[in-house]
Design a protein that fits this description.
It contains seven helices and 23 strands. The strands form six sheets. Strands 1, 2, 6, 7, 10, 11, 20, 21, 22 and 23 form a ten-stranded mixed beta sheet that branches. A four-stranded mixed beta sheet has the order 5-13-14-16, covered by helices on one side. Strands 17-19-18 form a three-stranded mixed beta sheet. By secondary structure, the chain is an alpha/beta fold. It has a single domain, classed as Metallo-dependent phosphatases (Purple Acid Phosphatase, chain A, domain 2, 4-Layer Sandwich), CATH 3.60.21.10.
Length: 332
């Protein structure tokens, strides 16, 4: 099974870190109160939570046609997706039946038939991206209603600005995990307004304030921003991303997990905290010919007291059907 591990532990001198890596194949102060999903658990003395993050999940076009035939795009990675306390992905389409495509080069929409798959595999999805508004605000509202009806938590978007910016709090193993979603990819018209459905726009001051508030107001033990940002098809992040990601860590984020580029980008360890600038596509057909796309599936193990541990599983995504498959199979 293709994966590599990164473990961060404090060395003897304060401020130093040892990294072992091996490749193995209501309202308050004008803001909405956090959405909270609680799962009862007895807090352990060294409680930890394992969270799997995947990249862009686009369930329209070829993947949507496969779902209509009864196929499961996630089947080859099911064991990894299930081997976690939480599994989180970016829903890179609007799931709806209504609306008209807005003027832009690519419009992505999936049918409600994909909702049971999201229920099966995901603890939460981010809707903070440049496709949630592809069929207008009414389609986004339909998507939110479908997710709510199916009890699939979401973050990074809402029926207004307050909803879009509120953190999603998920409780596992006695720990409160805050997820924050933001998008800075055009068109900016997809941004939520005071009374307009949309996504949370990535503004540094807003993100830094939200990270601090997640701890101070929402009493989160762990905080993870999930930005949709940068430039497509570039192997490295832009300088503004590197600066902002480090500011997020300085503000109290335990990790930063990014996406949008459709390719994997660099990974950075800053103050013992991982920054993944782009996970690449996870489920996504690609109409430009070429070799299979590379996808990273990141599994973080986080606690209040121990440094984070990170495993990255490597998959490839077929450009025709859009399905992810492990790039290396375990030997029997």
């Amino acid at each position: 099974m293709g994966r590599f591990q990164m473990r961060c532990r404090p060395a003897a001198p304060p401020g130093c870190w040892l990294v072992l890596a091996a490749f193995l194949g209501g309202l308050m102060d004008g803001r909405a109160l956090a959405q909270v999903e609680h799962v009862a658990a007895e807090p352990a003395k060294t409680a930890s939570v394992r969270i799997v993050f995947v990249g862009d999940v686009m369930l329209g076009r070829a993947p949507g046609e496969a779902i209509a035939r009864g196929e499961d795009p996630f089947a080859d990675l099911a064991a990894i997706l299930k081997d976690a306390d939480l599994t989180v992905g970016n829903l890179e389409c609007v799931v709806a039946t209504c609306g008209e495509p807005v003027p832009k080069p690519v419009n992505l929409r999936a049918g409600p038939a994909c909702i049971p798959l999201l229920q099966r595999y995901f603890s939460a999805v981010s809707v903070a991206n440049n496709h949630s508004g592809d069929y207008g605000p009414e389609a986004l509202v339909e998507q939110l209603a479908l997710l709510e009806s199916a009890k699939v938590p979401y973050f990074g978007g809402g029926r207004n600005r307050k909803e879009a910016h509120r953190p999603l709090i998920l409780e596992r193993n006695g720990l409160r995990v805050a997820l924050l979603g933001y998008n800075d990819v055009i068109p900016p018209s997809f941004e939520a307004g005071e009374d307009r459905p949309g996504t949370a726009w990535l503004r540094p001051a807003d993100v830094i304030a939200a990270i601090k508030a997640a701890r101070e107001v929402d009493h989160a033990d762990l905080v993870i921003p999930v930005p949709h940002w940068g430039v497509e098809n570039k192997p490295r992040p832009e300088e503004y991303q590197r600066v902002l990601a480090r500011r997020m860590i300085d503000a109290g984020a335990d990790a930063v997990i990014g996406g949008h580029a459709h390719v994997t980008q660099t990974v950075e360890l800053y103050k013992g905290r991982p920054i993944v600038y782009s996970l690449g596509n996870f489920v996504f057909d690609w109409r430009i010919p070429g070799p299979p796309m590379v996808s990273w599936i990141v599994r973080l193990t986080l606690s209040k007291l121990e440094p984070p541990q990170m495993e990255t599983f490597v998959a490839t995504v077929d450009r025709t059907d859009g399905f992810p498959r492990l790039s290396l199979k375990p030997k029997k």
